[in-house]
Amino acid sequence: MYHKFTRLAALALLAAPLLFTSCDKDDDYELEGAVTQPTFTFSAPKSVGLTTEVTFTSTGPDAFLYQWEFGDGTTATGKTVTHVYKKSGTVQARLLTSYRGGFSTSAPQDIALPQNVTFVKQLLTGTGSKTWILDNASDATITVGTEAKPTEYYAGGKAGDLPACQADDEFTFSSTDVYTYEAKTETYVAATPATATTPAVPAACGAPRSGTSDYTFGPAVGDGYAMIEFKKAGTFIGVTDAPDLTYRVIDITEKTLVLRAGKPNGTVFQMKLVAKP
Q1: pLDDT in the model for residue 34
Q2: Are 123 and 94 in contact (CB under 8 A)?
Q3: Angle CA(251)–CA(257)–CA(258) in degrees, nearest 5?
Q4: Residue 214 CA to chain centroid, in angstroms?
Q5: How far apart are CA 184 and CA 104, in angstroms?
Q6: Beta-carbon neighbour count of residue 183 at 10 Å?
Q7: Which domain holds residue 86?
Q8: Using CA atoms, how far apart are residues 219 and 196, in angstroms rounded to an integer?
Q9: CB 170 within 8 Å of CB 132
Q10: What is the CATH number of the domain that holds 27?
Q11: 166 and 215 in a common domain
């Protein structure tokens, strides 16, 4: 995907100088010499809440266009730009520039972003443990889609639409990496599609599936501030058919939490939760 994007960006940048050089048939511009490889500097990463701001500045010759790749899947244009990272760890940034003689790409530079995982975990677990419930007071409590569009397959229901046996579920995370699911009297079990030998089973409230699992907590792979990975098969949050055992923290405050179940290259379930009063 990266190489495909780079080729498209390069073609776009190469086309730009053609617009300038073909505006007037009487222009006698000539192609300049070898295209200079762009260079850039960046500011020290600045933490702003759960995000990190970095300002990038081109330090090479003036160009027609500047295309930045920030190393987190996002891009921007401009000679000087400020980017907000929503992750931690090391990313590689680079700059593509377009000149009359063509385009060129800088050498990549590593950007060391501060670890915010510890702060995220403190918000998740509180002083020792913290209990969350699905946010049934909001629209689109649970959606299904892709990494690029989490609502692509199912945009979610209206506020108050969750079945009672799902709305009363409690999900508790401890600072010692233990997760507890309390289903109360029933668990809302997702529908099962038909197979060649068995009929489809509709979604319904069923026997409670309360239980616990150890988990690991670290930087997210893909979107998100952090990632939870359960160690016990069958463990879930919110919906029983969520993919994998992986949940990423997409957003979090003292009282609200957005989780995304699944890995970046597959189907994802995104859900809104609130801290239990």
Answers
A1: 66
A2: no
A3: 60
A4: 24
A5: 61
A6: 19
A7: 2-114
A8: 41
A9: yes
A10: 2.60.40.10
A11: yes
Q: Which two tokens stand for residue 184?
A: 């109360």
Give yes or no for a contact between 111 and 42, defined as CB atoms under 8 angstroms apart.
yes
The pLDDT of residue 83: 97
| Structure tokens that stand for 94 in this block | 């680079």
pLDDT for the residue 260: 98
Helices (H), 223-271: none
Do 188 and 88 lie in one domain? The reply is no
Which one-letter amino acid corresponds to residue 238?
Answer: G
Count the Cβ atoms, other than its own, within 10 Å of residue 127.
7
Please identify every stretch of the chain with a pLDDT value under 70, giving residue numbers as ranges: 1-34
Same domain, 76 and 126: no
Specify the pLDDT at position 270.
98
Q: Judge if 222 and 235 occupy the same domain.
A: yes
Residue 237 confidence (pLDDT)? 98
Confidence at residue 74, expressed as pLDDT on a 0 to 100 scale: 94
Round to whole Å and give the CA distance between 180 and 139: 26
108 and 175, same domain (yes or no)? no
The pLDDT score that the predictor gives to residue 9 is: 52
pLDDT of res. 44: 95
pLDDT in tens, 72-95: 989 999 999 999 998 888 999 999
